[in-house]
Amino acid sequence: MATAEERLQILKMIESGQITAEEGAQLLEALREEDRRREKRWPGGRGRKPRWFRVRVTDLDTGRSKVNINLPWGLINVGLRMGARFAPNDIDLEEVMEAIRSGAEGKIVDVIDEEDGERVEIFVE
User: Fold this and answer.
1) Three-state SS for 110?
2) pLDDT tens track, the chain, 125 positions
3) Angle between helices 4-15 and 21-41 (to 10 degrees)
4) d(Cα 28, Cα 35) in Å, to the nearest integer?
5) What is the arrangement of strands in the sheet containing 118-124, beginning at the earlier edge strand?
6) Which residues are CB-neighbours of 45 under 8 A, at least 6 positions away?
7) Cα–Cα distance, 40 to 64 (Å, whole number)
8) What is the distance, to the nearest Å, from the Cα of residue 40 to the centroid of all Cα atoms in its chain?
9) I want to staple 69 with a disulfide (CB 3.0 to 4.6 A). Which of 19, 44, 55, 62 is the partner?
10) How far apart are CA 75 and CA 40, in angstroms?
11) Alpha-carbon distance 23 to 28, whole Å?
């Protein structure tokens, strides 16, 4: 989602004469369009910040938990790096981050890695 800071920067560029008002309007519209595109791709955000980032890795054969990480939202970058060590290669962490930034909540990743016999789940709550 475009931040107020990004919008303010565009308005300051107009004010200082770096860009025209028409160019500024186009940039602001591009930000709005990007927000709409993200909402279509990741609907369901409730407009409030999530509180928890959870990563679960489960052994498919035994059903036992191999990894169970619960992090406060403020430590999200650390959590993604930790979770990336255990995630199968078919998880695109940039796509996960895009989902999180756009407000997706609940289970945002559910992957079964047959080769390693693991299930990886990522939640934003």
Assistant:
1) strand
2) 556 777 888 888 889 988 888 888 888 888 788 767 666 655 555 455 667 878 889 999 998 988 888 877 666 666 666 666 666 666 677 777 777 767 777 888 888 888 889 988 888 88
3) 170
4) 11
5) 65-72, 52-59, 118-124, 106-113
6) 39, 102, 103, 104, 105
7) 36
8) 14
9) 55
10) 27
11) 9
Residue type (1 letter), 124? V
Region at 17 (left for phi over 0; alpha for psi -120 to 50; beta for the rest): left
Q: What is the pTM of this model?
A: 0.49
**Burial class of residue 21 (count of CB atoms within 10 Å of its CB; 0-12, 13-18, 19+):** exposed
Neighbours of 99 (CB within 10 A): 20
**Contact 52/104 with Cβ under 8 angstroms?**
no
Could you tell me how many residues make up the chain? 125
Token digits for 85? 């060590």
